Amino acid sequence: MDDSHILLCEDREAVRVLTLNRPSARNCLSMDLMGALHGAVTEAGENDAVRAVVLTGAGPAFSSGHDLKELTAHRNDEDRGRAFYAETMGACSDMMLAIVRSPKPVIAAVNGIATAAGCQLVASCDLAIASVDARFATPGVNIGLFCSTPMVALSRNVSRKGAMEMLLLGDMVDAQDAHAMGLVNRVVEADRVVNEAVEFGRRIADKPSRTLKIGKEAFYKQLEMPLEDAYRYAAQVMVENMLDAEAEEGIGAFLDKREPNWPR
């Protein structure tokens, strides 16, 4: 693969595979690549033919994080780069939120390294499959730039102590340790990582679509609530879900001992 198209798109039945395609730059997240990914995730979320999204990287890396060359080039701006840095961090946060807020499940297929904002990207996805040689890090502390925005996603996926160890030491974490920490769901051989993620997507695609949308939105909303508020909110979601045609069909099929015929 070359870098002529920075984001590749392939549909495997109902699963859309998006491939970060800057292999010569370890798929670092330039403004252009973040914009392309944001747009592609949004489009997939609005496309009824797409039921799940797989995100992976071309070449030996998933993503090495922000494009430091692009950021450094703006140090000579009149404001020493402040406006561009604010624009970049805002664009990155918006892109990560687009993944979280997408009505379609997004699955990371992690090949090679996922560092800094690349690790943040993995943590922002709903599920993650890692190759046995995948490695993860938030190494900004080693170059004087604490991984503050990656910290947001990381701290919502792993334990506090685990997140702080990654953030304070900046060391690489191998795939098995990332699995033990809860950063990834599965570890597979490198040649299977994308296919395994697509298979996850295909299994999800067989589930009722509105139910998935309701559930994903509720999952992330309740995480930010106090316990009592979370139960109150989740109870309201369950009531509305019960009234949906998918729940009516699914429960009816279960009671009738037949396969459900999901409304489309």
How many beta-strand segments? 10
Strand content: 15-25%
Q: Tell me about the biggest sheet?
A: 6 strands, mixed
- By CATH, the superfamily of the largest domain comes out as 2-enoyl-CoA Hydratase, Chain A, domain 1
Structural class: alpha/beta
Share of helix among residues? 40-55%
Query: Could you tell me the mean pLDDT?
Result: 95
Find the CATH topology of the largest domain: 2-enoyl-CoA Hydratase, Chain A, domain 1
Total number of helices: 11
Total tally of structural domains = 2
Radius of gyration: 19 Å
Q: Name the shape in a single word.
A: globular
Spatial order of strands in the largest sheet = 1-2-3-5-7-10
The residue ranges in which pLDDT falls below 50 over 5 or more consecutive positions are: none
CATH architecture of the largest domain: Alpha-Beta Complex
CATH class placement of the largest domain: Alpha Beta
- Taking the alpha carbons of the first and last residues, their distance comes to 37 Å
User: What's the helix-strand series?
Assistant: EEHEEHHEEHEEHHEHEHHHH
Function: May play a role in fatty acid biosynthesis and insulin sensitivity.
Keywords: Fatty acid metabolism, Lipid metabolism, Transit peptide
Family: Belongs to the enoyl-CoA hydratase/isomerase family.
Organism: Methyloceanibacter marginalis
